Structures are given as C-alpha cells and as structure tokens.
Amino acid sequence: MSESGLQQILLLLRDLYGRELRKGIYKLAYEHSNDVVHYSFLELVHDSQRALRLVRVGLLHDVVEDFLDLNDLKSRLDLDHEETTLLSILSRNVGHPEGLDYWEGILSSEMR
Q: Which of the residues 38, 77, 79, 87 has the least number of beta carbons within 10 Å of its own beta carbon?
C-alpha cells in the first residue's frame, strides 16, 4: 500500500457501507471499524510499522466478512502477506466458523 493507505481504506469503507447502520445500534456501520482500532491498545505497540498494519487490518476486518473475499480485497488494496494472514484470523467467515474456533485463532496468533 502506498504510504499508510489509510485514505484509500476509509474511502473503500464509506463506499461499501454507505449510510448502512450497524446491526442493533444507531451508528453508521463503517464507524465500527474505527471503534475496533480505537480499542486495540495500539499505544502499547512500540513498532510504528506493526501499529500501522494493525490499524489497516482493524479497519478492514468487516469488509472481508460483509463484502469482498480476501483475494479481491488483497488485489484492490495491495495488501501484503502478513495483512492477509491477520485478516483471515480476524474475519469470522475466513477459516474460522462462529464461536470458539474464531477466538482460539485470535488468541493463538499472539502466542507465536
């Protein structure tokens, strides 16, 4: 991705979600991604490249669940291998069914 790629990601989110509301709450659906990033404790990540990667993946996790398959997203945004791996862990419908397997995948990835 060029530089941070954040502007391209934010435009994609707004394009895909439009004015759609998040299920169960009165909030625009694309704003959930911002909440994920906000509550990710990024201030504890001292490597700026890793923190940026986590921001991008946090913003995109629902796109893989709701709109684009991982390969389509990868080609649209030129994601690297680590980003696609993280997205496959964080996106419920990619390699992890709902429930325990999903959470085990997230927790085990931090242990590596």
A: 38
